[in-house]
Amino acid sequence: MSLRGRFITFEGIDGAGKSTQIAATIDWVRKRGLEVVQSREPGGTPLGEKLRELLLHEPMHLETEALLMFAARREHLAKVIEPALKDGCWVVCDRFSDATFAYQSGGRGLSAEKFRALEAWVHPGLQPDLTFLFDLPPEMAAQRLARGREQADRFESEQRDFFERVRSAYLERAEASAGRIAVINSARDIQAICKDVVKQLEDRFA
Ligand code: ADP
Ligand code: TYD
User: What lines the ligand 1 site, CB under 6 Å?
Assistant: First the structure.
């Protein structure tokens, strides 16, 4: 048996309900008496948070955007994710490399081949133990965001067809993931979604 902690990631288009369900997951892990580190991408380290600020607000070439996502990820793995997992802590992270495949390849149209190479460079042999993909139509996500939204960032300002492509890329990746990615129908109320999340956690880790 591995002493390493578990690595759980949350994915979906903007407004899919990730933040809401992360809280339930953290509760579940803590109730089992386990230590958990909560983090996010882009971000999760002082340098990563500076890169996040640029990524969300500064106009840039689309390949610069993709490379900065992986640069922030390299720092995040070295400073936070790898040490925590080695110490036996669980890591619950809002987005990871699946987001780059979905947004920078699906959404922006860059070749997924480039990201397979970057993934092999930045985290060889490491994938999340479980990824939740919160799936819902972009128009529903936009309605939810419109209710509580301040100023939209560079990604949130994209049009519906961008999010359709991101959604499709996520679903394709889930299909090819051999069960690592659990697709959750997010077009339901918070309690129903939470029940599915907890069931996945129980089935895989209890
Ligand atoms: P994300 O982190 O994926 O962007 P959030 O969890 O912040 O999404 O949810 C976006 C908005 O939608 C928030 O205002 C949240 O309260 C609301 N929300 C989350 N889940 C649901 C749901 N199942 N039904 C209706 N509204 C929801
Ligand atoms: P996030 O904080 O999850 O946004 P939200 O809570 O609004 O869903 O992520 C910030 C944005 O960064 C989000 O719009 C998706 C984008 N992103 C990418 O485009 N590629 C990536 O690799 C990552 C990690 C995030």
Answer: 12, 14-20, 144-145, 147-148, 189-190, 193
